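Instructor's aside before we start: the two examples that follow are unrelated to each other. I chose them only because their records fit on one page, so don't look for a connection. First example below.
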Amino acid sequence: MTDVLLTVGTRKGLFLGRRRGGGSWELEGPHFNAQAIYSIAIDTRNSAPRLLVGGDSAHWGPSVFHSDDLGASWKEPAKAAVKFPPDTNASLERVWQLHPSAAEPDVVYAGTEPAALYRSEDRGESFELVRPLWEHPTRSRWEPGGGGEGLHTILTDARDPAAVTVAVSTAGVFRTLDGGASWAPSNSGVSAVFLPDPHPEFGQCVHKVTRDAVDPDRLYLQNHWGVYRSDDAGARWTDIGQGLPSDFGFAAAAHPHRADTAYVFPINADADRVPAGRRCRVYRTADAGKSWEPLSTGLPDGDHYGTVLRDALCTDDADPAGVYFGNRNGELYASADDGDSWQQLASHLPDVLCVRAAVLA
């Protein structure tokens, strides 16, 4: 049986869950009381896991904290870990994403608002701005989405440390193949129904991108409207939303071991941000988007209004996989069998912003 750590970032602090072996879940917190926790990473690449948290204090502002003892204690760098250089004339609003590189042992990336990518080579204690993306010639035409102009998705490739994919609301997907020296929009086939030209080179409102566990060139994308798949690492995208009750949503997650398997949480519409059909349902594809099945065993049956945000759905790396989500009602759900059945772990939490889980050695 596996020992699993579950981290839950909310509008008012961080909660930590633990399931030891086949036992029941234990949930404690909050850490960082009254801070909004927008980003979490569980870095298991070394012998001792490191937790990284992007906190946002209304009084002290945003910061990145880390713990090497599973949250028993936390450290904050003496100098701001993520900070915009003076010549950028920008200031940090929040850290939207923290991502340990799949290809470089000590490298961690951070995505921020305003939309920028930062790189750390000391496991997240200090970061440097990736200037070529910040200075991209299209930047002056990037527009903030409803939640701000955030770089919210970072994907690295275990085969090649120079290949990095990011997503920005609302600039779309950008890729580098040379370690960040140059970047190109990667949105071919993704629509932007809210723009005069519905198929621009950039400007799409991408909500989340995730990578297939077996084929690293296969990506899944949840757009403002539309669910897509790429089979060539993002060069081209194909609509796979048919069969879903709605192709609007925020979250997407891939199964950690099974090919062609991914999860989304459909939302009624951009103007009606409640679960599709007012039913609390995760949808899973096991054939790369050719078909979708609702997963509802153990979830509420009646009308439901808990919206799942872009980073509030995740999987762990167990087999069978754990699947987890939290919503804006403050409810937290977990599955230990690939999503086939669910249990509610918590209710009445603050607004859930992000969820991350990992098996501990």
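Example two begins here.
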Amino acid sequence: MSELQKVIQDLSAESAELDRILAGLPGARWKEPTPAPGWTIAHQVGHLSFIYRIAGMAASDPDGFRSMMASIKDGLSEAVNAALDEYTVLPPAELLARWREERAAGIRALAAVPDGQVVPWLVRPLPAEILASAGIMETFAHGQDILDALGIAREPTDRIRYLVIFAVLTWDFGYEARGMTPPDVQFRYELTAPSGELWAYGPETADQKIVGSALDFCLLVTRRRHRDDCDVTAVGPDADAWLDIAQAYRGPAGSGRRPGQFAKLPA
């Protein structure tokens, strides 16, 4: 199985797990607020649907994607927020169906990208497996907001490995979002997977090191938990400062989450 096929398999499974939760959700609950200020569950699903839609366009119609990006005057964040109105006016059953349709089309398009071919994206072209990994990040992050709104504990799986890899590759996004220059260092990451496996990235001899739970690392880099509530520690001043600003997505960091904001849910 190719690396792209592995990522696609995990992306499909991660999305299907969130779908299972949403499928049994009464319509009235789609209006419930999530920890993201101003966003309901419907907003979260609409955002995911739009992301899958444009990822599918990038993979299947690169020229159309480039034209769309060139037409956006106020930046992608504003375009994403504007697109939410298109989704949140839909009744829950229609919104769920829309997400399923656009999700399936996006995943199919990414899976069909030939080996070695890159896909246009926001700043530079990406290999399809990296863009699919970004899809896992988006699904994990916005899915976490939905789980938190519903008071449901996440069932951790090793599917988060590709989110970890994506966060390691995009380690400079937190600096970029704040207009800061990244330090001229390399980090070592040693993270324990839900299965107990050790995932290690970066040079073994690095002075700056990130250590801890892979799940908590993912919650940290998606800014769904404050670092004080994560089993993730740093060795070295640069790594320690990074834990305060880490984010695995472009654009504004947002307010993040407060220390102790979420009660520990039963496993």
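The beta strands are 118-119, 126-127, 187-192, 198-201, 208-213, 232-235.
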